[in-house]
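cron nightly-structures :: item 1 of 1
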Amino acid sequence: MIGHFRHLIQIDTSNPPGNEIEAARYIEGVLCQEGIECQVLEPFPGRGSVIGRIRGNGSARPLLLMAHLDVVPADTEKWQHPPFGAELVENYIWGRGALDCKNTVALWLQAMLAVKRSGMVPSRDLIFMASADEEAGGKAGLGWIVENAYHLIDAEAALNEGGGIGIKLLGKTFFAHQNAEKGNLWLRITAQGETGHGSVPRAKNAVVLLMDGLRRLMQHKTSPRMTSTTRAMIEAIAASQPFYASWLLQLLKNPRLASKLLPVAIRDETLAGLVSALLHNTVSPTVLAAGNKVNVIPSEASAEVDIRILPGEEAEQYLAEVKSVLGPDITVEVLDLKSASESPVDHPLVGSMTRAIRQLRPTSSVIPMMLPAVTDGAYLRRRGMAVYGFTPLLPDEHIGLIHGNDERISLGSLRFGLEVGLRAILDFVR
C-alpha cells in the first residue's frame, strides 16, 4: 500500500490542470495485473478516471469505494520537503495529497487487491473508482461519469473521503463518519461604476459599490439551525458521558442555545468557527479584482464568494436571497451550485464501520458528522446512493495541513486506516 501511495503522490495531478490520466493508467495497470476488470475513462484530454470491479454473487447491491486523483496546487518553495517527492521522514510520508486524498485512493486500491487475492466471492460487487477533477467541482470527473456512465458505478452505498477522523473530546476518543455535507454556492459578484481619473472621486465608484454589497452580504445573518446529522452527533457524544455532562450536551440540540453557548464553551477559535459552521450558512469572500493602475478609477470591480448551505435548504432559494441582499446594482454569476446532501445515520454500512472501529478501539465511539465543505459524493446522494466519508485516521494526525504547506500523513494512520477500512468492507460484503 505504501509503495502505491508514494507512487501516486509522485504523479503531479495539481488541479488546474489536473492531468490525472497518468495516475489513472497506473492504477489500471495494478488492477489488471491482479485480474480485476477495470477501465479508464478520459472524457477530456488528460482528465482520467479509473473504475474497477470485483464481481459478487449478486445477493446484494454493490458497494462503491471512491476517491479522487487530483490535488490542489502546492507552493514548492514553502515546503520543507518536495510536495511531489513522497519522502519518508520520521515515520511520515510528505506530499501534496497525503491527506486529501491519495491516502484514500491507496486504501481502497489495497482493499481491492486484498479481497481479490483472498479468493472470496462477496455478496455484492465491489467497485473501485478514482476520479478526476474533484478539487474543481468534479465536472470533468464524477459529474461526467454520473451523466454518461452511471451504470459503471451504480451501488447501494459508497465509502468516500471526508470522514473517519479520530477526535479526542471530553475524555473520550470518537471516530466520525461523514454522512452529510453542506451545499456549494460559489458566486462572482460584479459592480459597474463610472470610470475616470483617480484625482476626481466619482459618486458611483465600482470598488465602493462592491465593498458596500459585500458588507451587506456579510452582515446578513441567517438563523442557526440543527440538522438531523448534527443532532445525532450531539446525542452520540452525550451518550458517552456521565449524567451531568450528558444533560448539558443535550441542551445543545436547541440551535439558538448552541449558537450562544458554544463560543463561550470553546476557547479555540478554529474549533469554535467549525462548530458555528455546522449551525449556519456561511459566506466567505475569497477573490477580489478591480483596476490595474492607482490613478484610474475602474469601471468594474468583482469578487468571488464561497457560500456553504446547510442540508434542508435549497441552493436556488438561498441564491435568490443573496441577490436581494446585494441589490440591483450588483450582478451575480453562479460559478458552482450544489445542494447540500445527507445520508441516513442508521444505514447497515454505518454498522459495519462501527464494528470495525470497535474491534481495534473498543473504548471509542463512532459518531456521525456533517462536513462543512463539499465532496463529489454529492453527485451520488442526488441519485439516491448512501455515501459516507470514512478514511480512518488516528486522533493525533495533522488534518489542519489539508490544502496547506507540508501536508503529510503518519505510517501509523496509513496502517490503522487499512486495518479498519478492510474490516468495514468485509463486514458489509460478506
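cron nightly-structures :: done
The first strand starts at residue 37 and ends at 44.
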